[in-house]
Amino acid sequence: MSASNLKYGLRFFQFYTTAQDTHKPGNPDAPFGQQPVDQILWGHNIQIFTKCGSVAEARCRKTMTN
Q1: CA 58 – CA 33 distance, rounded (Å)
Q2: Of 23, 40, 54, 60, which sits 20 to 30 A from 47 (CA to CA)?
Q3: pTM over cut 0.85
Q4: C-alpha span between 38 and 36 (Å, rounded)
Q5: How far apart are CA 55 and CA 18, in angstroms?
Q6: How many CA atoms lie within 13 Å of 10's alpha carbon, on the beta-carbon side?
Q7: Where does the chain have alpha helices with state H?
Q8: Which candidate, 4, 3, 18, places its Cα nearest to that of 46?
Q9: Low pLDDT (below 70) residues in the chain
Q10: Within 13 Å, how many C-alpha atoms sit on residue 18's CB side?
Q11: Nearest to 14, CA basis, from 57, 54, 47
């Protein structure tokens, strides 16, 4: 992995783990199975967390584009 990809991986982790405590690993109430974020291409995820300040903003942008 490249250095930039590792940095994006850290930003990805920070962006999505601060969204909701229920999705943190080890939480018994966390949903089981593939999450919607797992279904998004890596390049699209990079655009999401570099352009949006929060998961709520990302959801709002997605809603406005549909």
Answers
A1: 22
A2: 23
A3: no
A4: 5
A5: 9
A6: 6
A7: 3-17, 42-51, 55-65
A8: 4
A9: 18-37, 62-66
A10: 11
A11: 54
